[in-house]
Specification:
Layout lengths: L14 H11 L8 H13 L3 E5 L2 H11 L7 E5 L4 H9 L3 E5 L21 E4 L11 H11 L2 E5 L7 E2 L2 E2 L6 E5 L12 E5 L2 H11 L21 H12 L1 H19 L5 E3 L6 E2 L5 E5 L7 H10 L5 E2 L16 H9 E4 L7 H12 L2
Parallel strand pairs: 2-3, 2-4, 4-5, 5-8
Antiparallel strand pairs: 1-9, 6-7, 6-11, 8-9, 10-12, 12-14, 13-14
Helix pairs in contact: 1-7, 2-7, 3-4, 3-6, 8-11
The site of pyridoxal-5'-phosphate has 14 residues, from helix 3 and helix 4.
Length: about 350
């Protein structure tokens, strides 16, 4: 039986050609033509003026927070249900991540619960476009304007998704992307910050390269080494050439899952709000109480049929560094949610096989 993974890089375009070009020319480190090319093309694809490439998505978030001057004594609002990198990036600055429960319908941060936890220490909000579905950004942007907060979009799972016709990453002050191996676009490891604020872009470029001034080896501040390599950018550029194709495959597969699972009782499919164009980073479902078995048992059944799957993230409030009480919606989503095989290399037959295991037929 063929093994069906949850995710795998789709490298069918110019990835090999551009990567070999780096090796043949010996430009494999963090200088070279592919870096500005990838930054320019990715930022314009997303509708932002500036792209600052970095070494991974976690560093993209940390760099954005650091460049905005967020640090010790500050608070940053994040969703309880996210990948741990969102919380950790805040913690790295010395600021405190303040958790907000999920919206039952979209699985994203419940924007109606943000206002009540804002204090004079709150400096920023990080909405996370979870599993490829954009957050409801209008209420967040309005609140941020009213209360003078920065908005950093965590777009690690939502390359190419849009909110009311605007691509994610171009709405807040900064948009942060990851190009990890299982993301919609991959460079192996990698990330990017987008902004349309030129001063902020310059500040991020300065901090990501050890805070070096125009005078070589003069470092007026403590910066970081968050540079991407030309080799990564080469792969990223080739990936970007095929982004429409990659997203179309995700959407096609989501439709196949929907068709094959529609008669299966006890399953809630992924949402798509009228304001959203989701990109289905993962094909996610919720197993409700009336489903024929629990989530962990289904994962076991899939595994014995050579099919990989993932549970939803464990919410931040259940992790020792961020432990606290409450958050009924995210706890419930986390318990019921499962990510199904989401590779763009899947064939219709593969999805059919996954769905027949789920249906127990
Ligand atoms: C993947 C991911 C990140 C971090 O990206 P890395 O490149 O792995 O550091 C951040 N936030 C979310 C929501 C993610 O899914």
């Amino acid at each position: 039986m063929k093994f069906i993974p949850v995710a795998e890089p789709d490298l069918r375009g110019n990835e090999r050609k551009y990567a070999l070009e780096c090796i043949d020319s010996s430009w494999i480190s963090s200088l070279g033509k592919y870096i500005p090319a990838f930054e320019d093309k990715f930022s314009s694809y997303c509708g932002a003026a500036q792209g600052i490439s970095v070494s991974n998505g976690t560093n993209a978030l940390h760099l954005a927070l650091a460049a905005l001057g967020i640090g010790k004594g500050d608070e940053v609002v994040i969703p309880d249900l996210t990948f741990v990198a969102t919380a950790n990036a805040v913690a790295y600055t010395g600021a405190k991540p303040v958790l907000v429960d999920s919206d039952e319908k979209t699985w994203n941060i419940d924007s109606s619960k943000i206002a009540e936890i804002i204090t004079p220490k709150t400096k920023a909000v990080i909405p996370v476009h979870l599993y490829g579905h954009p957050c409801d950004m209008d209420p967040i942007m309005e609140l941020a304007k009213e209360r003078n907060l920065y908005v950093i979009e965590d777009c690690a799972e939502a390359h190419g998704a849009s909110y009311k016709g605007k691509k994610v990453g171009s709405i807040g002050d900064v948009g942060c992307f990851s190009f990890y191996g299982n993301k919609i676009l991959t460079t192996g490891e990698g990330g990017m910050c987008l902004t349309s604020d030129e001063n902020l872009a310059e500040r991020m470029r300065f901090l990501k390269d050890h805070g070096m001034s125009k005078r070589r080896y003069f470092h007026p501040e403590i910066g970081f080494n968050y540079r991407m390599t030309n080799l990564q950018a080469a792969i990223g550029l080739a990936q970007l050439e095929r982004i429409d194709e990659i997203i179309a495959a995700k959407i096609r597969n989501a439709k196949l899952y929907r068709d094959f699972l529609k008669s299966c009782e006890g399953i809630t499919l992924q949402p798509e709000e009228p304001y959203a164009k989701t990109v289905y980073w993962m094909h996610s479902i919720l197993l409700e109480d009336k489903f024929r078995c629990n989530r962990d048992l289904l994962m076991h059944e899939l595994k014995s049929n050579e099919i990989d799957s993932r549970p939803f993230f464990i919410p931040m409030h259940e992790l020792p560094p961020y432990e606290q009480e409450g958050f009924p919606v995210s706890s419930d989503l986390s318990r019921k949610g499962i990510n199904l095989p989401s590779s763009t290399l899947l064939e219709e037959e593969d999805i059919k096989r996954v769905c027949s295991v789920i249906s127990g037929k």
